[in-house]
Amino acid sequence: MGTAATRRHVRSGLSILALIVVFVLLWEGYKLIWAALGWEWPVRPDDRTMPHTWDIFLTLFQPAQRNGPLFIFVEGKAALLTLREAFVGFVVGGAIGFGLGVLFVRSRTAERAFMPYVVASQTVPILAIAPMVVVWGGRLDVPQWLTVSVIAAYLTFFPVAINTLRGLRSTPTNALELMRSYAGKPRETLWKLQVPTAMPYIFTALKVSAAASVIGAIVGELPAGFRGGLGRDLLQYSQQFTAAPEKLFAAVLIAGLAGMFFVGLVTLVEHRWAGRNGLRSYPREGTAG
Amino acid sequence: MTEAVVEARGVGKVFGSGPDQTEALRGIDLDISSGDFVSLIGPSGCGKSTLLRIIGDLVGPTTGDIAVNGKTPDRARLDRDYGIVFQSATLLDWRTVQKNVELPLEIMDFPADVRPVRAAEMLELVQLGGFAGHFPWQLSGGMQQRVAIARALAFKPSLLLMDEPFGALDEMTRELMQQEVLRIWEETGTSVIFVTHSIPEAVFLSTKVVVMSPRPGRISEEIVIDLPRLRTQDTREDQRYFELITEVREALRREESGVADDRA
C-alpha cells in the first residue's frame, strides 16, 4: 500500500513537471515562431511583452530592490501576509456560508426571504464593496489586515452557502424517513445524516472559496492601502511593466502558487476526511441513494 | 391470545388537491395481529406502499382511523415501535456496517457500552458476524440488505415494515433472503408487514396475503396462508403452496377484469 501511494505521488509529481515543461515550450515556441514570421498579433513576441521564461524564473532569485533582499523572499513574505488575510476570511466566510445553508434547508421561509439578497450580494462588484469595508473598518479601529479578511470572506461565503444547501438537500428521502422512524431530533438528523451527505458538495465549494479568498485578499489590499501584501506589489510591478516586465510575471507566479497552496491544503483535508470515513475512490456514487 | 398490532378502519388517502388530486386509497379496513406476517400485494398504483407508509406514520391518512399497538401511528413512532426496511438498503456510506447498525441506537440514547454488543448480536442474527468493520461499498446487494434488516431490528421494534425489500436482488439471493427473513421472524417474534409484487414471495412468507387493487387503491381480498408455520425449501414444492399461489393469482386477475368492467 505504501509503495502504491509513493507511486501515485511520483506520478502526480511527474505530471506537474510535464505540465510546466509544456507551458515553457508553448511560451518560448510562440516567441520563436511569431518573431521568425514577423507576426504581432495577438501578442507581440518581444522580450518587453513576453519576457523569456528563464528570465522570469531568475528574477525570483535577484534582489527585488537594489541591494535589497531577494525577490522570492520579499514576495514570499508578502504572499504569507496575504494568505493570512485570505485564511481568516475563508474561515469566517465558510462558517457564515455553512450557517446560511443549514438555515435555508431548515426553513423555506428563511430561504425565500434571504436567498435573493445572498445572490444579489455577489452581483455587486468587489471593487465597490471594498472601499466601504475599509472606511467602516477604519472607523472601528479594526486592524487593516482584518478589514481585508472581511472582503475575502465576502467572496467566500457565497459558494459555500449555495453548495451546502444543495448538499444537504441531496440527502435521500428514504434516509430521512428512517431518521423520522427513529424519532430523531432535527439536530441529530442534521449532524448524523445531512451534513455527512453534504460533505462532498461542501468540499467542492471550499476549494472554489479558497481560491476566491486569495483573490479577495489581493483585491482588498488595494483600497485598504495595505502595505506588505501581494496586492500592493502586484499593482506596483504592473506600473513598472514596461521597465521590468519579468517582475510582474514573477509576482503573478507567486500569487498563483499562493492560491494553489491554499486549494491544495483544502484538498488534503478532503482526502483525509474521505479516507477516515472509508470512502474509497472519492467522490463516488453513494449506496444511500 | 393475540393482540391487535394494526387496526385500520375506513382509511383513505388523497394526494394533491383540485383537478390534480389522485385518490391513492379508499375505505381500507385491515386487522393485523401480533406475530402475523402479512404481505400486501397488488399491481403498481394499488396503494400498497402508501398503506405501509400510513401504518408507519411516514404519511398521514386523509380519512379514517388507524391504531398501531392501540396508539396513534404518531405515538407509536415516537415510542419506536417501527423498524423499516426499504427497497434500497439506504446505508450510510461513511459508516462501517457496525456503525450503521448502531445508528438508531445512538439516536435512541442507548448507553455507549450497550450499542456495540447489540449491533454484534444483530449482525449475528443476519449472519454477517464477520463483516462488522466493512464499509457498505464492500458488500453485495444482498449483504447490504441484511445490514438494513439488522439495523431495523437493532432496537427491537414490535413491528417490522418492509417495502419491497428484495425487489432489487437477483432470484437466487432473493430466495435466500426470504428464508432468512422467516428465520429472523421466528427468532424475534416481530410482526411483519411486507410489500411485494411477487406472488410466490407473498405466499411463501406470509400468514396472510392482502390482495389490493388500483384506482382507487383498496383491499379486494384477504387470503389466509394455511401452510405450516415452519417453511423450508420443500415448501416451495408443496402442493398446497401451489394451490395458494393460484388462489392469489386468481384474486389479482379477478381484480383486473373488474377494472376492465368499470371502464366498459
Relevant terms:
heterodimer, A: 289 residues, mainly alpha, 0% strand, globular, B: 264 residues, alpha/beta, six-stranded mixed β-sheet, three-stranded antiparallel β-sheet
Can you give a write-up of this model?
- The complex is a heterodimer of chains A (289) and B (264).
- Chain A has 289 residues and is mainly alpha-helical.
- In chain A, 78% of the residues lie in helices and 0% in strands.
- Chain A has ten helices and no strands.
- In chain A, helix 2 packs across helix 10, helix 5 crosses helix 6 and helix 8 (186-224) packs antiparallel against helix 10.
- The longest helix of chain A is centred in the C-terminal third of the chain and has 39 residues, at 186-224.
- Chain B is α/β, with parallel strands linked by helices and 264 residues long.
- Chain B contains eight helices and nine strands.
- Chain B starts with a strand and ends with a helix.
- In chain B, 45% of the residues are buried.
- The model of chain B has no long low-confidence stretch (mean pLDDT 92).
- At the A-B interface, helix 7 and helix 8 of A face strand 5 and helix 3 of B.
